[in-house]
Amino acid sequence: MDEIIVLQTLYSLLVQNKTNRVSLVRLQTEINENVLIRRLVPSTGKQVLSVHDILETIKRLFPKQTSLTEGQLTFYNLQLAELRDKLYELYESAKSRLVEQVREIEPQINLLLEDKTTSQRTRLLLLCRDTLLNKFQEKEHARLYQRSVEDAAVRERLDLGLIRTRTPTSILELQAWLQMCVANATMYEQTGSEGWLAARASQRELDDTIAFVRSVLE
Predict the structure, then answer these.
(1) Which domains does the chain carry?
(2) What predicted TM-score, i.e. pTM, was given to this entire model?
(3) CA–CA distance, 4 with 10 (Å, rounded to integer)
(4) CA dist list (Å): 74 to 29, 77, 144
(5) pLDDT per residue over 105-117, tens digit each?
(6) Cβ atoms of 185 and 197 closer than 8 Å
(7) In angstroms, rounded to a whole number, what is the distance separating the alpha carbons of residues 92 and 102?
(8) Using CA atoms, how far apart are residues 163 and 158, in angstroms rounded to an integer?
């Protein structure tokens, strides 16, 4: 996962800079402020990935293609298309590993689905789904998710209407669907644009909504 985060952030900065150089300090800051990183790792107030971690990851991904001078990382003979292809390759590899892990625990999942308490649990999850969606749709920026994003960079199209037709297996899965909506919108919009800022703002709205629903469940 570290490689994906580093590569995704690096790609975004290179596109923005329109050059083959990136500030190491800015790269580290952007990586450690990444939404996915902040959600995967509990907040400790410390940097999630150190400069050493980032440099080692870059060396592993681009052997003999980089140099570091006065805090600036320079990449040699690196095309953005190559970088994008490598990013997709890592995505697909991670996806395959996750699919295999799910396949391994599928028998256990089936047992849970056959349990006599499943119907009651399903009703509770559907209630949570509708409550969370209704609350989120009251927010200012929820209008961003009334339709699915269509773009080459977005692998799965999701909108609030589509989520309302799905039955989540857990609150975490429901949260992941909504998080994917926000992530898709952020990737789709140009960095710094009005749409991008709105998508970033909706992240806070989603966090508030999830916190509200969790407090009700508790």
Answers:
(1) 2-100 (1.10.10), 116-217 (1.20.920.10)
(2) 0.43
(3) 10
(4) 18, 10, 37
(5) 878 776 766 665 5
(6) no
(7) 15
(8) 7
